[in-house]
Amino acid sequence: MPTSTNDGRRPSSPAISAVGLRKAYGDKTVLDGIDLCIPEGSVFALLGPNGAGKTTVVKILSTLIGADGGQAEVAGHNIATEPDGVRAAIGVTGQFSAVDGLITGEENMRLMADLNHLSKRKGKQVVAELLERFDLVEAAGKPVQSYSGGMKRRLDIAMTLVGGPRIIFLDEPTTGLDPRSRHNMWQIIRELVSDGVTVFLTTQYLEEADELADRIAVLHEGTIAAEGSADELKRTIPGGHIRLRFTDPSAYHSAATALREVQRDDEVLALQLPSGGSQRELRSVLDWLDAAGIEADELTVHTPDLDDVFFALTGNNAATPAEEAAR
């Protein structure tokens, strides 16, 4: 990991770095040597089944609990020896809203400004700016218990931003939100990153990680099973294919006889060819069909998605995080 300068930070240092993080509770090892390197101004998503240790990672990096082994730096500060520096640089939004439903949204925000030791003038300015940014001005004077789930989540993140953190931990930020509110939250996260904020995201929605994350890590049985961009992870999983469907039985049988390594479905007159989904492979199949004078009525391309990645890395019997949450 990089060595800190006098101000506790190197411009080239990652926002979050960790080497060999370990944590056990009794005889149960939760984390068994976790390595991370998360660049500034990026979105990092941590996926894994329930009990994989995602929340434990967040708690260690945000200094809520200590690690049993390994070391980590957050915002250039060692989590074990400089916890105050870490806490001053981060914001944490948990899975469950931390807002007070009995007071108004603006009062919640002002309380957070006081906790961050902002002056009255500065606090008033920051609160006003964040209420406007998160489209909460009209609701600011209403008790939070009257807010919708999406409004509460926006307020929760707005409160996290009062202190101006450069690194934010979002633990399942869209759980329980309707699709429109979820997409609104995605836009907020994109805007934060465009401002240079680093987002560490845990999520139960695989499509959310696919949509937002620059890099994704899959945590399984205490270790990082795989890490990379969504496209990189998908390319590691076999199962991509091109599917051809015919209405003319003779065309179907001609194609099935001529094509190699093809799976047949005689009932629906469909053929499945292994494929990585590249443009070159698709063009090759189309050129062959043209040259042979065979016309397929339907052609579809399937490439592995994050569901496929998740099942391949954690076992086909494992439920996705979203499925586990619905139980």
Automatic annotation (TrEMBL):
Record membrane topology: Peripheral membrane protein
Gene3D superfamilies: P-loop containing nucleotide triphosphate hydrolases
One term of GO molecular function: ATP binding
Domain ABC transporter: from-to ranges: 16-246
One Pfam family named in its UniProt record: ABC_tran
PROSITE patterns: ABC_TRANSPORTER_1 (PS00211), ABC_TRANSPORTER_2 (PS50893)
Alphabetical keyword list: Antibiotic resistance, ATP-binding, Cell membrane, Membrane, Nucleotide-binding, Translocase, Transport
InterPro entries: AAA+_ATPase, ABC_transporter-like_ATP-bd, ABC_transporter-like_CS, ABC_transporter_ATP-binding, DrrA, P-loop_NTPase
Localisation: Cell membrane
Similarity comment: family membership: Belongs to the ABC transporter superfamily. Drug exporter-1 (DrugE1) (TC 3.A.1.105) family.
Name by which UniProt lists this protein: ATP-binding cassette domain-containing protein
Organism name: Streptomyces rochei
